[in-house]
Design a protein that fits this description.
The structure holds two protein chains of two kinds. By secondary structure, chain A is an all-beta fold. Chain A contains no helices and ten strands. In chain A, the strands form two sheets. In chain A, strands 2, 4, 5, 8, 9 and 10 form a six-stranded mixed β-sheet that branches. Chain B has no helices and eleven strands. Classes of the chains: A mainly beta, B mainly beta. Chains A and B meet through strand 5, strand 8 and strand 9 of A and loops of B.
């Protein structure tokens, strides 16, 4: 089955840029979605098909190439501290796959 | 955007079954696709299966085939998840989600608040 690999944790200073990666075989051929999850809350969609849903800050952006998809958060704020998960649809298994998540810590 | 409200936390014994419901509001129920996702403590989300109510079509994840039943009641805008033969590792928070893009691969635009299912003897 298809596997998505995420770095377990990323630390970033306020005002800097956080880069969160999601590795997968030929992931560039897939649509990647990204979710933010804060403690005790349900996940929140932040990037859908490399685009931001309504209400999501312009500081969040997504890109996808070759074997790595990337979620970028610019001008990081304390409120961005959360777990971030990537998601794709795997045509070989006809199902959704999630990454294990990256915990973003704001220093 | 659809709002999703789920039923409350439950405790079940190993070998039994559990049913979780999810009521949708704020949008035309049959214009969305719905999926169930669970998340064990400290783990990433795991997709369980989905349903497209307008076509009465369901799709179950391989790892849950034979144990999960997903249904939708259009008249009450309510989704139901039933999981059988529970094990201790089924202990998790279970979420219902909705997708405006009903094609396979659509993102999960809205999420319910989650239902904690605890499996314990």
């Amino acid at each position: 089955s298809y596997v998505l690999t995420q770095t377990p944790s990323v630390s970033v200073a306020p005002g800097k840029t956080a880069t969160i990666t999601c590795g997968g075989d030929n992931i560039a051929t897939k649509s990647v979605h990204w979710y933010q999850q804060k403690p005790g809350q349900a996940p929140l969609l932040v990037i859908s098909y490399d685009d931001r849903p309504s209400g999501i800050s312009e500081r969040f952006s997504g890109s996808n190439s070759a074997h790595t998809a990337t979620l970028t958060i610019t001008a990081v704020e304390a409120g961005d501290e959360a777990d971030y998960f990537c998601q794709v649809w795997d045509t070989s298994s006809d199902g959704y796959v999630f990454g294990a998540g990256t915990k973003v810590t704001v220093l | 955007q659809v709002q999703l409200v789920q039923s409350g936390a439950v405790v079940r014994k190993p070998g039994s079954s559990v049913s979780v419901s999810c009521k949708a509001s704020g949008g035309r129920f049959d214009r969305y696709a719905y999926n169930w996702v669970r998340q064990a403590p400290g783990q990433g989300p795991e997709w369980m299966g989905g349903i497209l109510p307008i076509r009465r079509r369901t799709q179950d994840a391989q790892s849950f085939k034979g144990r999960v039943t997903i249904t939708a009641d259009i008249s009450t805008s309510t989704l139901h998840l039933e999981l059988n033969t529970l094990r201790s590792d089924d202990t998790a928070i279970y979420y219902c989600t909705s997708s405006r893009n009903v094609a396979a691969g659509g993102s999960f635009d809205s999420w319910g608040q989650g239902t904690l299912v605890t499996v314990s003897a």
